[in-house]
Design brief:
This protein has 13 helices and 14 strands. The protein has about 350 residues and is an alpha/beta fold. The protein has a domain of about 140 residues: Rossmann fold, CATH 3.40.50. It has a seven-stranded mixed sheet with strand order 6-3-7-8-9-10-11. A four-stranded mixed sheet has the order 2-1-5-4. A three-stranded antiparallel sheet has the order 12-13-14. The longest helix is centred in the first third of the chain and has 21 residues. It starts with a helix and ends in a 5-residue tail after the last strand.
Amino acid sequence: MSIKSIAAKIFAKYIRNKIDKWASNPEATQEKVFKELLEKAKNTQFGLDHHFKDIKNYKEFASNVLVRDYEELRHYVDKMVAGEENILWPGKPLYYAKTSGTTSGAKYIPLTKESMPTHINAARNAILCYIAETGKSKFVDGKMIFLQGSPELTEKNGVKLGRLSGIVAHFVPSYLQKNRLPSLMTNCIEDWETKVDAIIGETKDEDMTVISGIPSWVQMYFEKLQQTTGKKVGDLFKNFDLFIYGGVNYEPYRAKFENLIGRKVDSIELYPASEGFFAFQDKQGDKGMLLQLDSGIFYEFIKSEEFFDENPTRLTIGEVEVGVNYVMIVSTLPAYGHIIWVTPCSSLQ
């Protein structure tokens, strides 16, 4: 066992203990985040418009900050994109993540210097929780592929702009750089089919141990890899034991993947979004994911059947029930009272 894999086990245990502490105290964890958001944003335009300085508790916050979608926040975002400072968060954002989303067409989601580490740490912690639970760490010595968007960014009024996966590519920890594939040049290829062919050229002779990406993207990579080499993915990459995915439900792909690989491999589900890294699978035996309660995101919930009522009841993390479907509302480092998703609460811990 290498020094790197031994260190990974030690660090994994440390991080797992830290996660267990805040996860076992969800209400206190969220109260801390709630107060920090109010304090840091009180002098922004949004904070002044919604009287953050006078808000003492959640009830007052819910009265002052209405639930809204991106279109209802757009006039604030448009000011930020135009170059104005101190609108939704102090100063200017580091990046804008451009996304088509599921509503509102093209959206510009601000990413701040405070929010970027939460994306990186959550992805890292998902892997560390896997190591802490299973004891498997040998894979850190092999090559890892992250199928993602181009890391090439444009600029808008002094702020970098790109897809979330491309932005995150600039924050891969230094200790993973030597293990990481594909190369920067290949990652910057825009045409997906051309990119996949280039990735195959770089990876087919490597010791790939971890493969990560949206299942539909990875399936195309696996199929072309098999066509090119004439081998099952698992025969080509004998030490490939961990698949990390997000973006869509994996179940419709699972049987096809196992056929392409030639065997079963462990998997970790992630729920990243431009607005925040919301959850990840922290236990192999559970289908649910751990909601990231300490990552600068304050969560509220509305029962799905009440969502279109005139005055639906807004609930905090301490008031939700397992097995009930909720619309999830998030207040993050750059946005407040923003509608994100509908999910069964039973899928979140």
